[in-house]
Amino acid sequence: MHFIKELFHYNPIILHVHSLLLASIFFALSISFFCFDKKRFSVLLLFVGSLMLNYFLIHLDPFLNSWDERFHCLVAKHMSINPFNPMLYTQPLLPFDYTNWAGNHIWLHKQPLFLWQMALSIKLFGSSEIAARLPSAIMSSLLAPIVFRMGKLLINARVGFIAALLSVSNNFILEHVAGKQELEHNDLAFMFYVIISFWAWIEYEKTNKQLWLIIAGFFSGASILIKWLPGLLVFSGFGFYHAILKRDLICSSTLSKLTKAVIATLATFLPWQAYILLKYPNEARAEYALNGRHFMEVLQGHGGSKWFYIHELGKEYSMLYPVILLGMLMILLRFRKNFLMLSLLVSTIIIYIFYSAAATKMDSFVMPVAPLCFLFAGVAIDNILTLVSNYKLIAMPLLPIILTWLYLQNLSVDKIAGNHWRNPETYWGQFAQNTADNTTTYKRLNELVPPNSVIAYCNQFEEIDCMFYSGITAYSYLDEKSFKILKTSERKIAVFNNHLPEFVIRDTSVFIIPCDYKINSTSGREN
Fold first, then answer.
1. Cys staple from 500: which of 105, 176, 251, 504, with CB 3.0 to 4.6 Å?
2. Strand pairing partners for 87?
3. Dihedrals φ, ψ of 477, to 5°?
């Protein structure tokens, strides 16, 4: 009986398994309806199933994940009150370095659009990790109809459905929704807006309606408002399509429409740049310089060989990456006249070349083209199914079998369990459980400490969690000089009993927080 209780306490997969089962039922129904040619209803079910799956994921960790999620959530919480003043510390009581994004005051380390989304969710639903993750859950689910539509326009509905199914069930993408994967909500939002810009461009090419190209430009600008200039990726596809394939880029009509799209892009992202340069010039220039250094320098240990992203294909796509490569080869050999697919392939190659050339490397940098890669996989699988279509006894059951296998393989429940099970017998499992227990304490801090307190001696970087849940200014380790500065701030110093130095123990004015504080030796690795 004790083992069962422990299993439920530490294993969130078991605790929330009803949501996972319900999501799988919707996915199964979606696959079934698609096999019976009920395409629209199948995509609707796919969207609902994805919502349920993401609901499951955002509840797995009842704490802020290290490294980046905690910072994004705290800044978003502050932006829910003042959306145009992004702050980490709203009331910095100690001197700080404005170039240190992990401990400064005005926080411009990331462009603001995804933070505004999180801030709106926090404003509506309260300061919780669930509310902060909700925008990512919605964006991930919306990939279902968007990617389906792209595949249908480019090849056929079957390619669209396969790509949509893979996009909303991919383990690597889903761990961003859960806040577990590095750069989580930032990279998820970036991928979402990049893909919308490609979808709008494809609609333009199919309908010749200029509004779609302007929409593509707008969402390209929105992408820049998340992760800077790689958000212009859609224009690489447009340029290749019209300059190399159709050879009409310099025509007045094409240039006129392109100019309007570029104006829409500039009008979307330039106002914020002007605003921060005028209001926070030092911080803004420091962050622009840091963006450039990512390309030339290995920052914070995130380096790798020129083959880094090729080696990571297995992590991002599991056993599906050979299918993606096969689809790319088929596009080159069998679909050479499908200029739009060729252009998407070129854009994908460009993003891989660009980030491979950059000195700083991280898995998620190439994630914006993941749905495009799933379209390539859809091409390969669709061609395989076409080849066996004449063999009715094989072809009829093959489609649901393949789609179900794709869902299960792509989701990788075993990986989710490994990433989120707070098994106290492993170092990282115990680390996660300690963080969860401390989060419960942070939520009660206003009851535990005197009014007008400042908190000190949190675990490293958990001062961010402390401020998110309690709203009280907090710090981790303090040297004697910093401690004396806090003493002059007219704040009551409240500390966790966490390897306290002798000068703190001797000070009888310090308030020891009465709680069982779990000590973590580190709060994760830097990004």
1. 504
2. 106
3. -75, 140
Q: Are 405 and 411 in contact (CB under 8 A)?
A: no
- Token couple for 373: 């890669």
One pLDDT digit (tens) per residue for the chain, 527 residues: 455 556 666 888 888 889 999 999 999 999 999 999 999 999 999 999 999 999 999 999 999 998 799 999 999 999 999 999 999 999 999 999 999 999 999 999 999 999 999 999 999 999 999 999 999 999 999 999 999 999 999 999 999 999 999 999 999 999 999 999 888 999 999 999 999 999 999 999 999 999 999 999 999 999 999 999 999 999 999 999 999 999 999 999 999 999 999 999 999 999 999 999 999 999 999 999 998 888 888 877 788 888 999 989 988 998 899 999 999 999 998 777 899 999 999 999 999 999 999 999 988 999 999 999 999 999 999 999 988 877 766 767 888 999 999 999 999 999 999 899 998 888 989 999 999 999 999 999 999 999 999 999 999 999 999 999 999 999 999 999 999 999 999 899 999 998 899 999 999 999 999 999 999 875 443 33
Stated pTM of the model? 0.94
